[in-house]
Amino acid sequence: MSKTDFMPRSLAGKKNFFTNYSTKISGYAATFGLTTGVASDVADATNGKALYDYLFGLQVAIKLYAKALTDFMDIHLYGSHEAGGALPTAIPAFAAGTAPTTLVFDLDGKIRRQVARIKAHPAYTTTVGQDLWLIGTEHTDDPATWQPHLALHLEGGHVFVGWGWESHNADAAQIDVDRGTGTFVHLFTDTDPDYIDPAPLPTTPQVWRYRASYIKSGAAVGLMSDVQSIGVGGAA
């Protein structure tokens, strides 16, 4: 039996970890001898998290823009696919947002070195590790127990479905969706962690639900993920 790495493998998982760690680490700085100030351990965590969030969002925006541009190219070449469909009035514009001015490099390595110092300190306890999400879980790689864990949020007008391999040797994840009908349908079989649901958000408030299972050698294995829900559309 092995223990999983405390650092998540998926980009969405890392985003959640960096958010939790950077929010709480300043409260432990004095206890564990971490430096504070402009160029410090705490600044690396907070500035690194800000840059990661921006780059994470930028990657999502680029994927969505690539799809919008492809759709525009199709209409440019062949016209609207829908009878009487409205034609776009402009080429899709790309919005990169405002980038952070402080750059942090080797964020993963910096955080790991901080964590190593924290865990080696006499004041370190399991409670601290749990609070900062520094404790991996005991892990046996039995395919019958594999279960994805989804994290949903809205990104660029679409639902971002975060998932990861979680140290399993799966080939893909099958993602299902229920768009308020009460019935799950197959959405996508994803071979690369994290997925952007291409469906536009509805104009009226709805609750969309997602679930996933791992795929190995062309067949579903393990346990279905817990169902995750997200409010979409209107003022939801």
Write the layout of secondary structure elements.
Blueprint: E1 2-3, H1 11-24, H2 29-32, H3 41-78, H4 107-120, H5 126-131, E2 138-139, E3 151-155, E4 158-162, E5 172-178, E6 185-190, E7 195-196, E8 206-216, E9 219-221, E10 228-232
Antiparallel strand pairs: 1-2, 3-4, 4-7, 5-6, 5-8, 8-9, 8-10
Helix pairs in contact: 1-3, 3-4
In short:
The chain has 236 residues and is of the alpha+beta class. 32% of the residues lie in helices and 20% in strands.
Q: Give the quaternary arrangement of the chains.
A: single chain
Number of strands: 10
Shape: globular
Alpha carbon gap, first and last residue: 44 Å
The average pLDDT value, as a whole number, equals 89
Polypeptide structure, described:
This protein is α+β, with helices and mostly antiparallel strands. The protein folds into two domains: 2-131, no CATH class; 140-232, Immunoglobulin-like, CATH 2.60.40.10. It has five helices and ten strands. It has helices spanning 11-24, 29-32, 41-78, 107-120, 126-131; strands at 2-3, 138-139, 151-155, 158-162, 172-178, 185-190, 195-196, 206-216, 219-221, 228-232. Strands 5, 6, 8, 9 and 10 form a five-stranded antiparallel sheet that branches. Strands 3-4-7 form a three-stranded antiparallel sheet. It has a two-stranded antiparallel sheet with strand order 1-2. Strand 8 (206-216) and strand 9 form a beta hairpin. It is globular, with a radius of gyration of 21 Å. The termini are far apart.
